[in-house]
Amino acid sequence: MRFELGWCEGARRCESPHFNQRPLGEVSLLVIHNISLPAGCFGLPHIDQLFQGCLDTNADASFAQLQGLEVSAHFLIRRNGERVQYVSCNDRAWHAGVSCYGERENCNDFSIGIELEGTDTEPYTPEQYQSLTALTQALLAEYPSLSTERIVGHCDIAPMRKTDPGQSFDWERYLGKLKEYTQALRS
C-alpha cells in the first residue's frame, strides 16, 4: 500500500472540507476511534455525509446534536473492511477535539485519526482488524515518527470525554499482529 501526497492508494477517496494544515507538519501519533450514525446502525451514508459537511440533520432525531458540527477523520474502516479516506495524512483532520497525549495538547496537530464503523460494545469484524492492521503497517512505513508505542484510543487522549474504541476493541489482537509485522521487518 503506497501513499501519494498523504493519500492512500486503495482507499475510497471522499474528501472533507474539515481540515487544515498541521502547524509543524508532524505525524507521530495514531488515534483509533469508533463511529456509527445513527448509533449502532452500519452501512449507511451518514458518516460520509457528516465528514463532508452535508449531513441532513433532519434524517434522524439523534442527528439534531450534530447541527453545524465540523468534524473529520483521516480514515474510516467499514464493517466489511473497506477503507475510506477523507483527509490527506499530511493535513490536520478534526477528529480528536480537546485532547492530550503526554504533555502535548491538541492531538489533531500531530496525529492520524482512524474511525472504525462500530460501537464501544459490539465486536469489530475480522475484516476490520485485517484492514486496520494493513493500513497501520503502511502508515508505520510511510511516517517514521509513528510506532506501535504511539497508537492510542480516543479514550486515552480525551479520557473524561470519550470512551472509544470501547471495550469491544481487541487491542491484544491488533497490536499482536503489528508486533509480528515489525519483528519480520527487523529480521
Please give a structural write-up.
- Belongs to the N-acetylmuramoyl-L-alanine amidase 2 family.
- Its cofactor is Zn(2+).
- Helix 2 packs across helix 4.
- The model has no long low-confidence stretch (mean pLDDT 96).
- 24% of the residues lie in helices and 21% in strands.
- The protein has a single domain, classed as Peptidoglycan recognition protein-like (Lysozyme-like, 3-Layer(aba) Sandwich).
- The longest helix has 17 residues.
- It is an alpha/beta fold.
Topology diagram in text:
Blueprint: E1 3-4, E2 7-8, E3 12-13, E4 19-21, E5 29-35, H1 46-52, E6 75-77, E7 83-85, E8 91-93, E9 100-101, E10 104-105, E11 111-117, H2 126-142, E12 151-153, H3 154-157, H4 171-186
Parallel strand pairs: 3-7, 5-11, 5-12, 6-11
Antiparallel strand pairs: 1-2, 4-8, 6-7, 9-10
Helix pairs in contact: 2-4
Low-confidence stretches: none
CATH homologous superfamily placement: Peptidoglycan recognition protein-like
Quick one: overall form? globular
What proportion strand? 15-25%
Order of helices and strands: EEEEEHEEEEEEHEHH
Average pLDDT figure: 96
Overall tally of structural domains: 1
Strand elements, count: 12
Keywords: Cell wall biogenesis/degradation, Cytoplasm, Hydrolase, Metal-binding, Zinc
Pfam families: Amidase_2
Enzyme class: hydrolase
EC number: 3.5.1.28
Summarize the structure.
This protein has helices spanning 46-52, 126-142, 154-157, 171-186, and strands at residues 3-4, 7-8, 12-13, 19-21, 29-35, 75-77, 83-85, 91-93, 100-101, 104-105, 111-117, 151-153.
Key features of this structure:
about 190 residues; alpha/beta; Lysozyme-like; two-stranded antiparallel sheet; 4 helices
